[in-house]
Amino acid sequence: MRLQEFSDRLKILTGLLLVSKIATGIEMNTKAIKDFIRSGGYAWPGGYPVVLLMSDGEILCADCARENFRLILKDTKHGTPRDCWHAQLPCIHYEGGPLYCAHCNKAIESAYGGDDE
Ligand SMILES: [Zn+2]
Protein backbone atom coordinates (compact mmCIF):
# COMPACT_ATOMS: atom_id res chain seq x y z
CA MET A 1 0.00 0.00 0.00
CA ARG A 2 1.39 3.37 -1.00
CA LEU A 3 1.92 5.95 1.72
CA GLN A 4 -0.74 8.25 0.27
CA GLU A 5 -3.28 5.43 0.21
CA PHE A 6 -2.41 4.51 3.74
CA SER A 7 -2.77 8.07 4.96
CA ASP A 8 -6.12 8.45 3.17
CA ARG A 9 -7.34 5.22 4.69
CA LEU A 10 -6.25 6.32 8.13
CA LYS A 11 -8.09 9.61 7.64
CA ILE A 12 -11.26 7.75 6.69
CA LEU A 13 -10.99 5.33 9.58
CA THR A 14 -10.28 8.09 12.10
CA GLY A 15 -13.29 9.97 10.81
CA LEU A 16 -15.43 6.88 11.11
CA LEU A 17 -14.36 6.24 14.65
CA LEU A 18 -15.02 9.80 15.71
CA VAL A 19 -18.41 9.73 14.08
CA SER A 20 -19.33 6.37 15.51
CA LYS A 21 -18.46 7.34 19.05
CA ILE A 22 -20.75 10.31 18.80
CA ALA A 23 -23.44 8.65 16.73
CA THR A 24 -23.67 5.25 18.33
CA GLY A 25 -21.59 5.28 21.49
CA ILE A 26 -22.10 1.56 21.81
CA GLU A 27 -19.84 -1.19 22.89
CA MET A 28 -19.48 -4.05 20.45
CA ASN A 29 -21.41 -7.06 21.65
CA THR A 30 -23.67 -9.78 20.28
CA LYS A 31 -26.64 -7.44 20.11
CA ALA A 32 -24.67 -4.76 18.30
CA ILE A 33 -23.52 -7.28 15.69
CA LYS A 34 -27.06 -8.61 15.23
CA ASP A 35 -28.47 -5.09 15.01
CA PHE A 36 -25.91 -4.20 12.36
CA ILE A 37 -26.79 -7.28 10.29
CA ARG A 38 -30.53 -6.65 10.65
CA SER A 39 -30.03 -3.06 9.53
CA GLY A 40 -28.88 -4.33 6.15
CA GLY A 41 -26.19 -1.67 6.28
CA TYR A 42 -28.47 1.32 6.79
CA ALA A 43 -28.90 3.32 9.96
CA TRP A 44 -32.37 3.96 11.29
CA PRO A 45 -33.53 6.65 11.47
CA GLY A 46 -31.81 8.52 8.68
CA GLY A 47 -30.96 5.73 6.25
CA TYR A 48 -27.25 6.51 6.44
CA PRO A 49 -24.90 3.84 5.12
CA VAL A 50 -23.35 1.83 7.94
CA VAL A 51 -20.27 -0.37 7.75
CA LEU A 52 -18.77 -2.70 10.30
CA LEU A 53 -15.28 -1.58 11.25
CA MET A 54 -13.10 -4.54 12.15
CA SER A 55 -10.25 -4.46 14.64
CA ASP A 56 -7.70 -4.81 11.86
CA GLY A 57 -8.97 -1.62 10.24
CA GLU A 58 -10.89 -3.36 7.48
CA ILE A 59 -14.51 -2.73 6.62
CA LEU A 60 -17.32 -5.27 6.25
CA CYS A 61 -20.67 -4.76 4.55
CA ALA A 62 -23.87 -6.03 6.19
CA ASP A 63 -24.22 -8.92 3.71
CA CYS A 64 -20.78 -10.29 4.53
CA ALA A 65 -21.37 -9.75 8.24
CA ARG A 66 -24.54 -11.86 7.88
CA GLU A 67 -22.72 -14.60 5.97
CA ASN A 68 -19.90 -14.72 8.53
CA PHE A 69 -21.93 -14.00 11.62
CA ARG A 70 -20.71 -17.04 13.54
CA LEU A 71 -17.06 -16.31 12.85
CA ILE A 72 -17.50 -12.67 13.85
CA LEU A 73 -19.40 -13.54 16.99
CA LYS A 74 -16.89 -16.19 18.02
CA ASP A 75 -13.93 -13.85 17.66
CA THR A 76 -15.59 -10.70 18.98
CA LYS A 77 -16.82 -12.35 22.18
CA HIS A 78 -13.19 -12.61 23.25
CA GLY A 79 -11.93 -9.18 24.23
CA THR A 80 -8.71 -9.54 22.28
CA PRO A 81 -8.76 -10.06 18.53
CA ARG A 82 -7.68 -13.58 17.52
CA ASP A 83 -8.17 -13.34 13.78
CA CYS A 84 -9.57 -10.99 11.17
CA TRP A 85 -13.19 -11.50 12.26
CA HIS A 86 -12.95 -9.32 15.35
CA ALA A 87 -15.48 -6.51 15.07
CA GLN A 88 -14.75 -3.08 16.45
CA LEU A 89 -17.76 -0.87 15.83
CA PRO A 90 -20.55 -0.29 13.37
CA CYS A 91 -19.86 3.12 11.83
CA ILE A 92 -21.95 5.51 9.79
CA HIS A 93 -20.18 6.49 6.58
CA TYR A 94 -21.25 10.14 6.36
CA GLU A 95 -18.92 11.62 3.79
CA GLY A 96 -15.90 11.01 1.63
CA GLY A 97 -15.19 8.52 -1.09
CA PRO A 98 -16.65 5.03 -1.16
CA LEU A 99 -15.35 2.39 1.24
CA TYR A 100 -14.80 -1.14 -0.01
CA CYS A 101 -15.88 -4.24 1.84
CA ALA A 102 -12.79 -6.30 2.66
CA HIS A 103 -14.64 -9.53 1.91
CA CYS A 104 -16.71 -8.95 -1.27
CA ASN A 105 -15.12 -5.67 -2.37
CA LYS A 106 -18.53 -4.01 -2.72
CA ALA A 107 -18.32 -0.20 -2.81
CA ILE A 108 -20.19 1.47 0.02
CA GLU A 109 -20.95 5.05 -0.89
CA SER A 110 -21.03 7.70 1.81
CA ALA A 111 -24.24 9.54 2.68
CA TYR A 112 -23.06 12.88 1.38
CA GLY A 113 -20.35 11.85 -1.09
CA GLY A 114 -17.45 14.18 -1.66
CA ASP A 115 -13.66 13.94 -1.74
CA ASP A 116 -13.38 13.48 -5.48
CA GLU A 117 -9.71 14.29 -5.80
ZN1 LIG B 1 -19.15 -7.48 1.66
Describe the protein's architecture and organization.
With 117 residues, the protein is of the alpha+beta class. The protein has one domain (3-108). It is 39% helix and 15% strand. The protein has 4 helices and 5 strands. The chain has helices at residues 3-23, 30-39, 62-67, 69-77; strands at residues 50-54, 59-60, 87-92, 99-100, 107-108. The strands form 2 sheets. Strands 2-1-3 form a 3-stranded antiparallel β-sheet. It has a two-stranded antiparallel ribbon with strand order 4-5. The relative contact order is 0.20. Mean pLDDT is 80; it is low at 18-26. The structure holds zinc ion. The site of zinc ion (ZN) has 8 residues, from helix 3. Residues 60-61, 63-64, 101, 103-104, 106 line the site of zinc ion.
Characteristic key phrases:
39% helix; 117 residues; 15% strand; three-stranded antiparallel beta sheet; single chain; binds zinc ion; alpha+beta; two-stranded antiparallel ribbon; globular; 4 helices
- From the N-terminal CA to the C-terminal CA, the straight-line distance is 18 Å
Our count of domains comes out at 1
The overall strand count is: 5
Q: List ligands, each type once.
A: zinc ion
Q: Helicity, in percent?
A: 25-40%
Mean pLDDT over the residues? 80
- Helix segment tally: 4
Q: What is the CA-based Rg, rounded?
A: 13 Å
Uncertain spans: 18-26
How much strand content do the residues show?
A: 5-15%
The SSE order reads HHEEHHEEE
